[in-house]
Amino acid sequence: EDAVKLAEFEARIAQGEKIEPDDWMPRLYRMQLIRMIEQHAHSEIIGALPEGTWITRAPGFRRKLALMAKVQDEVGHAQLLYSAAETLGKSREEMLTDLINGKSKYSNVFNYPTYTWADSCIISWLIDAGAIVNQMANSKGSYGPYCRALERICAEEAFHLKYGHDSVVFMATGSPAQRQMVQEALNRWWSQIMTFFGPSDKLSVHTETLMRWKVKMASNDECRQQYLDMYVPKIREIGLTIPDPHLHKNEQTGQWEYTEPDWEEFRKVINGDGPCNAERLGVRRMAEERGAWVRLALKNPTAKYVRPLA
Ligand code: FAQ
After folding, report:
1. InterPro entries per the record (predicted)?
2. Helices (DSSP H) in the chain: which residue ranges?
3. 119 CB under 6 A from ligand 1?
4. Mapped to the 3 state alphabet, what secondary structure does 261-307 carry?
5. With a 6 A CB cut-off, is 107 part of the ligand 1 pocket?
6. I want to staple 43 with a disulfide (CB 3.0 to 4.6 A). Which of 4, 106, 175, 277 is the partner?
């Protein structure tokens, strides 16, 4: 019976139909979607932290307002994504518990520090650009709630991209000190940008399954290539140097060639051992603790909250 259902399910996907929460779906499809959407949601709330710390130090009122709105959007994206993941049967509480315990992953790039204002500008432009490449593709995928969330998210990310681009161009065309600051930030962030799309297709574990069921609409390497096509010229156009001497487009294959990112470092960072992993999860843990009384009051308005001893 399941074989018939599977054939029907795959036929619907092949015809470009959306799968909705009450429809039959293979267990592996459900588990893979939960994993991917949950990781995506965690990336949005953890991703708010490296830039968020720059709100109080933003250079001027306009930048402060814009950055505050952008960071708030990212947290809103997490809300949309947690709701999409919940339609598959995992509760928000369970997802947040798994984040705090280190069981669930989130994007490696947010485990690196933002030393200067320019780091936050580079994230707003070039990490958000990466997110758009990935999310535009996947918004055409097969799972209805995830695709609809991604469409809304992409619309907002498009504003982030303009804000980020404007911030980087401002510095890149500013004083020598500003130009140096933004170049140094690019030097720090380039390898993170290259790993953002996940391991090379040769090393990727889930791509084949996810692409068969149209959850992922492009492979990690395809997204990386598309990103390089779109952004290398824009970065160079404003006089910044990409810190990879091997980066060039092979005119025969039409593919970008580059120094292979350090996948061993990547493996360590996604498994909890990066420069800021402990700090990032520490902030989430504190937020959970501070919000515990609100959740308890919502569940049981007459309960008395006793703060646990540290
Ligand atoms: N970081 O087999 P694959 C944003 C893990 S949103 C950490 O290739 P898959 C907005 C992967 O989970 C950013 N872990 O995996 C923003 C798996 O481990 P597992 C997030 C990674 O799923 C901007 C293992 O490696 N975007 O930035 C990463 O086929 C600014 C094997 O990898 C999304 O989540 C990584 N980079 O492809 C917010 C989009 N890459 O679970 C604030 C949705 C791989 O078996 C400020 N997700 N891993 O233990 C996806 O498109 C995919 O899940 C990929 C990975 C492409 C991330």
Report:
1. Aromatic_CoA_ox/epox, Ferritin-like, Ferritin-like_SF, PaaA, PaaA_PaaC
2. 2-14, 27-52, 61-86, 92-100, 117-122, 128-138, 144-172, 176-195, 207-212, 220-237, 263-270, 277-299
3. no
4. CCHHHHHHHHCCCCCCHHHHHHHHHHHHHHHHHHHHHHHCCCCCCCC
5. yes
6. 106
pLDDT in tens, 135-174: 999 999 999 999 999 999 999 999 999 999 999 999 999 9
Domains and CATH numbers, the chain: 2-281 (1.20.1260.10)
Q: With CA atoms as reference, report the closest residue to 32 among 210, 199, 197, 202.
A: 210
| Assessment of whether the complete model's pTM goes beyond 0.90 | yes
64 within 8 A of 9, measured Cβ to Cβ: no
Q: How far is the CA of 60 from the centre of ligand 1 (A)?
A: 34
Q: State in Å: Cα 196 to ligand 1 middle.
A: 7
| CA distances in angstroms from 303 to 9, 92, 288, 293, 299, listed in the order given | 46, 22, 18, 9, 9
Q: Which of 36, 101, 195 to mutate to test the pocket of ligand 1 (most atoms within 8 A of CB)?
A: 36
**ipTM of the complex as predicted:** 0.99
Q: Which residues contact 46 (CB under 8 A, 6 or more apart)?
A: 99, 106, 107, 110, 280, 284
- Contact partners, residue 59, CB within 8 Å, separation at least 6: 117
3-state secondary structure 125-143: HHHHHHHHHHHHHHCCCCE
